[in-house]
Amino acid sequence: MRKFRNLRTVVFLAIFSAVIFFGRMDARAEGERVHFGSEWYQWKLNEIWNIGVYAESESNLQSADMYILYDAEMLEYYSGGELVEPGKVHVYASEVGQNTFMQMLQFIPRIAGNTLVTIEQTPIVNGNGETINTESVSVGVNIPMADGCALSNILVNGVPVEGFFAENTGYFMEVEADIAQAEVTVEPADVRAEISSTNLSVGINEIKITTTNQAGARARYVLYVNRLESASDDEERQPSSSVVTATEETVDEVSFETILICVLVVLVFDLVLVIALCIRRWVIRRKKRLRRERIQAARRKQAREISAGEQEKVQEEFDEKNIDEKPLEIAVRNVTMEFKREKDEATSIKELMIRTIKKQRSYEKFRALDNVSFDIRQGEVVGIIGTNGSGKSTILKIISGALAPTEGYVDVDRKKIQLLTLGTGFDFELTGRENVYLNGAIIGYTKEYIDEKYEDIVKFAELEGFMEEKVRNYSSGMVSRLGFAIATVRDTPEILILDEVLSVGDMFFRKKSEARIKEMMHGGSTVLIVSHSTSVIRNNCTKAIWIEKGVMRAIGDPKEVCAAYEKMNEAG
Amino acid sequence: MTKKEQWKQYIFVIKQLTSREIKRKYARSYLGIVWSVLNPLLSMAVISLIFSQLFKRSIDNFPIYYLCGYILWQMFTGATNAAMTTLVDNKTLLIKVKLPMEIFVLARVYTALVNLGYSLVAFAVMLVVFGVRPSWAMLFAPVIVLFLLLFSLGMGYILATAYVFFGDVKHLYSVFLTLWMYCSAIFYPIDSLHGVIRMVIEMNPIFNYIDGLRQLILYGSIPPALEIVRMMLWGIIMYLFGYYVFRKNKNKVMQKI
């Protein structure tokens, strides 16, 4: 039941987010509009300039009936549409059959300054046959003024306009309701300036100031003077240009932000969903694993009970035989290694959380090593034998210090230990030479040491002339020869650990390598060999340890231990 | 072996591991290591072509604006993604060799740093192409990279540890990165946002680093003190936290592997 409710929540959330997401998309899809090719234009006096007018529809545009308004004094219409009257051009698009219609108009600026070009509300017929009226759109045109046209100040009733600078051609100001006429003066006085009517009616009045320089180029400043109506009625109309640009900008921002929010919401939602799924799978998998382990643990317990008696006997016999002459090198004392695993599965995230808080999570312990103790004396060659997964490599890791045991301790000088491994970290895409350095670095050689011994390594591996070749192209024998050569080039360490290395290359090389290993072994160092081949251990070791399922089954003479191991293998 | 020799050895190992990563990346190609510079250069060229038309109005020199974010983001994702899988990838090495585990994470992050170096060569070319004037403030850039590196390292430690226990982290993280990328204002101007989203982005550590670099490169000014402090705090805290998590779980990781 609980699961069902969870599912319902998830589905609800999914639908909810989808509605939000696609709802927004729909709102954006209503896209009949008119616009200009650019956000604003900069033209020059007395030259022909283009301005593109566009009509758009999301579905196929059928027709659009556009009227374009402009200031006939400042701009002279040149071509592109059909001139209705000065200041008004008609452009008609029919049977367009595409999403966008574009028409290029051409104007010649005659007076410098700033002016607006406007597309009036346009009826657009879209592919569905609907007629939609677009909003009217304006665009600013800036025409830089020629030298000698610029003013240095404008005064209205003796007061300078706010924020005057020569390139800004439009100013907005307010006057009291009782002022019926403005008195406009300009500086410098020697500029030829023509001022339009200064009579003020209530509301917004345009006063145009047109200046002319010696060459006859003209520029225009515009004052928007708002004569207030009365104290009670403060509502004003602002110049249309600022209104249009303001709304345009907010529209832009809002849509971008909402898209971003939508994307984020959907992503967060996905993330949550993925996390939920992951946790669910994890819980299920853990349940299975735990079941498996419990069975294994039971089996192991059985095995331990049987072997306990046997082991003690062997150990005692062996201890009697060897009364120590040489100092201890490695002392392993009661080492137990436990891996913690969680028991008693929680079925939902909620439950998991509650248990964690209440500290009710119980763990099952999996023993990789169970109370293992043995001594290794200086100069001994010890073989560790056992089937796969019985804890051989765990004991090696504990001895070399890579793992810390749960209980017990290992007494050994770790600086003396050298692990001999073959081809660790070989990269087949690199050349033999590069691999010598890489592999050497990993197993602990310094750069200087490798430089010095490089020739020896190549010679021993019999790979002269192949070192600049990629290892990818080596035969497997060549790879292991190189690995062996790198690993054994070092001076014999005091404690040497060999993890399955004694069967490398062809017959000839094997002899060579065995001789090398023997040389190292008989150089007086203590050697630990891990292998599951009994012959290796019989031939080389002075002592053998058999570890089975975490329990030490036997320790002593290699021949006896190997015989016992083989017997068990045949039986099992 | 003395401490100093030990460290020297570790640095040698990191260098070798890094050179392996870089060599093998282009091992089968004809141009080889040249791709390390060519690849970022070409992708930057493409990006600049596309993005020089976008957001023209609200950001001047948008390609450079974008590329500042792009190279740092690439380094961050490169470092964390690679560091995440490093322990699992180098499983055999970990078991067989007596090396501190940190080395593997460090090597991957260092690889990302070297790759950033190559990208910077390409970036320098772009700066020249787009006519950005060199300024003294640019000398401050290594500081930003250093703290971003610390931040990535901390993340790398956490992710590497987590990935050993849950393979799902990899996929989860890629989704998370997409989300993070949108929150880092890499390809849009932050000025166009308001409210909660803006707050989220400004608190976002990666955005801090990117924004810092942009101020250095585009405006030739040192970022404000508050931002520098935030960068340092993010970097140092993330590094310490990551390292703590990594240390704490070290033994468990070895058991699991």
Characteristics:
heterodimer, A: 572 residues, alpha+beta, Immunoglobulin-like, 6-stranded mixed beta sheet, 36% helix, 33% strand, B: 257 residues, mainly alpha, globular
The shape of chain A is elongated
In round numbers, the mean pLDDT of chain B is: 82
Gross CATH architecture of the largest domain in chain A? 3-Layer(aba) Sandwich
Query: In terms of quaternary structure, what is this?
Result: heterodimer
What separation lies between the terminal Cα atoms of chain B?
Answer: 28 Å
Give the helix level of chain B as a range of percent: over 70%
Number of helices of chain B: 11
DSSP helix count of chain A?
Answer: 10
Which percent range describes the beta-strand content of chain A?
25-35%
Beta-strand percentage range of chain B: under 5%
Instruction: Return the CATH topology of the largest domain in chain A.
Output: Rossmann fold
Whole-angstrom Rg of chain B: 19 Å
Task: Give the termini distance of chain A in whole angstroms.
Answer: 48 Å
| Number of discrete domains of chain A | 3
